Every structure is written in C-alpha cells, then in structure tokens.
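Handout, section B. The chain below has 321 residues.
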Amino acid sequence: MSQHPPVVVSCGEPAGVGLEIAHTAFAAVRGEVPMVLLADRRHVTGPVFEVTSLSEVTGQETTLPLLHHDFAGDATPGVPDPRNAQGVIDVIARGVELVRSGAASGLCTLPIHKKALKDGADFAYPGHTEYLAALAGVERVVMMLACPDLRVVPVTIHIAVADVPDALTAGLLEDTLRITHAALIRDFGIAEPRLAVAGLNPHAGEGGAMGTEEITLISPLMERLSQNGMRLSGPMSADTMFHAQARAGYDAAICMYHDQALIPIKTIDFSGGVNVTLGLPFIRTSPDHGTAFDIAGKGLADPTSTIAALRMAWDMVGKRG
C-alpha cells in the first residue's frame, strides 16, 4: 500500500475530454501515482474499479479506481447538460473535503466549463481557482503554470490588459511574491528560491521613458523584500526573460499579467504545462487546457498535461511529507 493516501481527481465537465483523459492518464501513472476518479459511474466509459472509500485504493490497481458521485443528467460528449452543472460544482467541493479530511493527499481537477456552470447552476466564481479559495477560506491564492523547463506566475490574471495598471498594487505583488516563495520551498523542495520579476512596460519601462510602474512600485518593493533575504532579480524586460540561458538563472518568473506569463510557457511546452494553485492549505493541480468540446468523445484528446498534473501533485505530496 502507498505511504500516502491517493490523489483524488474531480471529473470536471462530463461532456468534455476530462473523463476520457482520466483513463489514459491512469494507464500512464499506474503503479506510480495512486489516484481515484470522483465521477458518476454512468458518465465513465471503459472499465473501472469502483470503491466506496479511498482507503480501498492501494496504488497497485490495474483498473481505474472510481468513487461514485450522483449527477442529475447523462453525459453526451461535446454537449453540456445544464442538469449536471451542480454535480460538477459538488464534486469539486467533495474533492476538497476528502483532501482536507486526510482521506486524499491532493486534488487534481479536470477541466470545467464556466459558462455551463453559470447557465446551469448560477456559478458565482470566475473559475476553479477562486472557488477553491472560497472553499478553503483563503483570501488570496496564486496561479502558477509549470513545466520541466519553466515556472511562471501571473500577478494579475483574468482581467483586461487596460485594467492591469490599476489592479497591480504593491500589496498584490508582495503577496504573490511571498506565496510563490513559500510554495517553492514547501512544495518544490527549493531551499532558496530565485524569483525573476518582469516589468510591466516594454523594456521594463526603460528608465521611465516607457512607463513608471517599475520605478514607483516594482523596484521599491523588490528592494525591501531583498533586504529581508528574498532572492529577487529585476524588474526585467519580459522579452529577454525566457530564452534558455535566462531561464537557468531563476526558479520561477513573476509576470505582471496573464499573457506575459502564459505565452512563453505555452510556447515552450504547449501540451505538458500544469496549473498549480499556490497558497491553499492543500495540494491542487490541474491540466492546463479546457473541456475541448469539439473533440470530446473522438479519442483525440492529449493526456500529456493531465499526466504531468498527477505526477506533479504526487511529487508535491512527497515534498510536503
């Protein structure tokens, strides 16, 4: 039996690619990462090993372990059923309960479709991350995208570019730096994390000629945190931060807005990136893609990101002990 309880995998949107990926991902990590899928048995094609308790999962199963959760509707690939929206939300909450109770070691969330949840159950959150923070009672969490060659953290996330300068406050940036720093120590085993901080403006403002946020906000905060022992470099021009030689000089890149972070990691490793939520009292990873309704049920979905998310969650379990 495994030293730690299994990773629980929430099914996400049952009309998307998540459930078919769960089978192929399990085949890839079988005997390596103990896992159990939390889903409605009717929605899952292929053989499963149905359990009533996570304590039945040993990590040596040859068939995908499944913990059943009732949904109101059937699952048709590519066609979300509004009746299933509340079930998707409830599965996430149940997964969190299993982790927080100690029955599971971590949570890996398969993709949800935010519009389907809003239409079917009036889902009040922008996405997974914000809902998980609410369930955990945490005011601020950080989204990290990670692959073997790069870790990136956007300070501001799903807002318009025009709104970024106002949203980018010293408090938000400091929290992001501190949460990332702590997580790299606790969850990634990096004793003295090196954080590279991007500027907001082209050429990091070029001495104020292209913007002043680097001078008035970013640099003073970095100087203060550096004096307290944090290893920071920057603010850097974002267009010179992501080539191989530059990446060798830091453990994570702190970026000021969504695309500044996600374009480089998706260019370097489009299929293998993992979404990790930092700052939660439990481990949560997720594949870095959506429900892909257009290919759902056609056997075309790429399991690479889900496999990476499961392995990363299990590695984080080991780091936390």
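Note. The mean pLDDT is 95. Compare this with the example in section A.
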